[in-house]
Amino acid sequence: LAELVQGLNSADPDVKEKATAEAEKRLHDQENSKEEESKTVVDRTVINTQASVRDGFLAILEKDAKERAKRRKRNEHLANALKEKGNDAFRKGDYVIAIQRYTEGLEKLKDKQELYTNRAQAYLKMQEYEKAIDDCEWALKCNEKCIKAYFLMGKARLALKHFSESRQCYEMILQIDPQKESLFKDCMNEVNLEEKRMKDEERAMKEVESGKLSALSIKELLQKLDRPDQNILYYTGGIRLLTGAIKDCTEQTLFRTNNGFSILKDNEVVRWGFCAERKNAAEVDLSVSLLFLWQAVCTGNEENQRLLLTYPDVNAQLPKLLSSEVPEIQKQTLALISLYSQNENGRRLLVRHQDLTKWLQILMTLVNSTDARASSAMNILSNLTEEERFKTQCRVMLSTSVLPLFTQLLTSAKLVNQAALAHCIGIMGNLCADVVIRMQMAECKECWQACLKLVDECFDVSTPKYQECLFAVLGLMMNLLLESNGIIQYFAVDISGRCMSLLRERDGRIVTRAIGVLSRILPASLSAVEEAVKGGVVKKMIKFLKAGGQIASNYGIKALSICTRSNRQAQEDLVKSDKKFSVLLKLLESENEIIVGNAAFCLGQCLVVPGAATSLLNSNVVMILLKHAGGDATRTSVQENAAIALGKLCVAEPRHIVQLRKLNGLAILNSSMKYVHST
């Protein structure tokens, strides 16, 4: 019985199907047994005993079957809803979200064939061909006659140049449904054409490379490429040979002086190859070959870089090539742009000749890529953020296009390239140096929600790459908290609560940034302060301050000063946690004026607690505060906070005045009284 119930609840469709068949068989046998029992006269005592055991067993099976049916019906409803959400995202071209929704649907119902085929179709759009094939195979386990699964698998096999396997998939469609002959013929023609094209290209390249072209100079090669009567494979081969001939600045100069850039405007076939419109495979190869050529021509050559960008076709097509659906075109376009972004002159050329208002969005989209395109795009963005004009142009599309995409990436952190996402978050944090951009981001409710969701998921996902995303998002939040607005105040309790949870992390970098976020979010809300104090923030901060580390100390003492400023419980907690104020006294001797100022402020707030001032009688606190109150710190707040703490100390415990007199500090105390009265 246990094995049968376990089989009925199995995630494996084959196991579940066998268990269901066995259960139905036993229920059928039960009905037959009842009929036989009514016809046969036997020893009732024995029969009733066996029937009792059997009936109990079958009753459990029947109950379990009903519960499973009810649960399946509920899960099927949820899976269908998620499928529709995925379909909606697919129609909008948002394939990452579509995949996410289909995956969530499969978590509800693992044997729903439509979810596998729909996700396979989305993977095809993302050029994730192996994953598409895996999903098609799962769909066929659910339904061995699923035509859509064979169709999509054939497409994926074709994209991988697996021509024989692709044909087999299409042949299965015809076997399942002979009426699909028209579809079968179209698919087979596509395979045959693609296979022929690849063989023709290989043959043409052999002819080009083995012929006279391979021995020609750069000037002669350019003359050959100027011929208008050749096919696309001829130009592709010639451009590859030309690229191979350019090895240093001498060949780059020869290319320029022999009017090499003119092939962009004089040769219609080559010109078309540099356009981003949808292409067949031969045109894709020409486009990629051209991009390799421009890289060879422009590497380390500022004059060639300038000339290339002066061509109208290049200016118009670069953003479109960046958005190409062909991965290799995208990859080589990124490589070309990287040449410009890596140095100041190249970046200025891009800013001067290109409209970069959409580039942030275009490059950010590539975080979805699982290959080198993602890191290349982020490196380009990182370099461009060094240009003020780029930041200015980013403002234009930030609210309408960039932030919706960015929040979507944050909420899909489990699905995207996490190394690239961490880099992307860091870039957005750097863009916050621009006040206008920072204000727009800080006022975006969805952005804060997405940041919090990523922090929440870190407790479930603890991989190194995800930890880098968490580290980056905490840095972004710190930058955004330089602003003050109603949205920040609204999320203050949630943000401080997440940071309190992160204080348990093993990664010291994350803990330090969590303390930093706390130090900037607590001033935004008294409620956040109250919740943090209830959660033991004072004791935790004292613990981190004892451990040292200037950055963590800076953030930690600031957080304590905020809590003790307005919360009596925080003041009492600090007096209990920091016996005789040993931690605060140590911080008062720091060389960092910010730490000293906040430590003096914090000490002054806590002296209202009964017995606090008395506990300092045998310490050198008077001398330390007197030194800062009468010192020459560049920050006047250090002097003021020290003078106020000194005054409060003597008011709370007059015996400290004896030490003050010995140090001739009464004049400083008298001058500090105005601060004491004002507080």
TrEMBL record:
Q: Where are the TPR repeats?
A: 113-146, 147-180
- List the biased-composition ranges (Basic and acidic residues): 13-40
The superkingdom listed in its UniProt entry is: Eukaryota
Instruction: Give UniProt keywords alphabetically.
Output: TPR repeat
| One Gene Ontology cellular component annotation held by this UniProt entry | centrosome
Query: Which InterPro entries does the record cross-reference, listed alphabetically?
Result: ARM-like, ARM-type_fold, TPR-like_helical_dom_sf, TPR_rpt, TTC12
Biological process (GO), any one: axonemal dynein complex assembly
Q: Does the keyword Protein transport apply?
A: no
Q: Where is this region: Disordered?
A: 1-40
Q: What SUPFAM superfamilies does this protein's entry cite?
A: ARM repeat, TPR-like
Which Pfam families does the UniProt entry name for this protein? Answer: TPR_1, TPR_8
Whether Transcription counts among this entry's keywords is no
- UniProt protein name: TTC12 protein
